[in-house]
Design goal:
The protein is an alpha/beta fold. Helix content is about 45%, strand content about 20%. It has one domain (about 5-135): Collagenase (Catalytic Domain), CATH 3.40.390. The chain has 5 helices and 4 strands. The protein has a 4-stranded mixed beta sheet, sandwiched between helices. α1 links the parallel β1 (about 5-10) and β2 (about 35-45). α4 packs across α5. The longest helix has 16 residues, at about 100-115. The protein is globular.
Length: about 140
């Protein structure tokens, strides 16, 4: 059964609480566009310290990041957890001169693209990822 769920950890508040359905429908559009299905996807919104702890504990990285994606299944059926630091999203939005909502959607779709097998390790992969993100962001037509 397909499902996309949104959760919070710690003191984080669900950033799109009034627009969950719009976000969920948008993510389904992205998944369908890539000819995939979503078995079980969890977006977990948290703060910097919570995500830093995950980064240290599970990835042996000692730095802040905006998203960490844990895939549980590969192929055409997507299953995984995506932890997003709302502190990083806000800081990135300010740094890049964008709205919090746009940056949030970019980070959310970035994690989803990772689950689909896209990488951003090389400059070429990073360019492809950014183009995919931009294309996916155009599919959002509700919410904010």
């Amino acid at each position: 059964m397909e499902s996309i769920n949104f959760y919070t950890e710690g003191d984080a508040k669900l950033p799109m609480a009034e627009h969950e359905d719009a976000y969920r429908q948008w993510l389904y559009k992205v998944i369908q566009k890539e000819h995939k299905t979503a078995e079980q996807l969890q977006y977990i919104f948290c703060d910097d310290e919570y995500l830093l702890d995950i980064n240290k504990r599970y990835l042996d990285h000692d730095y802040y990041t905006d998203i960490i994606t844990f895939p549980y299944r590969e192929g055409s059926v997507l299953e995984g957890d995506m932890y997003i630091s709302l502190d990083r999203v806000l800081e990135n939005a300010v740094e890049f001169g964008d709205t919090f909502e746009n940056e949030l959607r970019r980070v959310m779709v970035h994690g989803l693209l990772h689950l689909m097998g896209y990488s951003d390790k090389t400059p070429e992969e990073e360019m492809t990822m950014r183009a995919k993100e931009d294309s996916c962001l155009e599919l959002f037509d509700g919410g904010q």
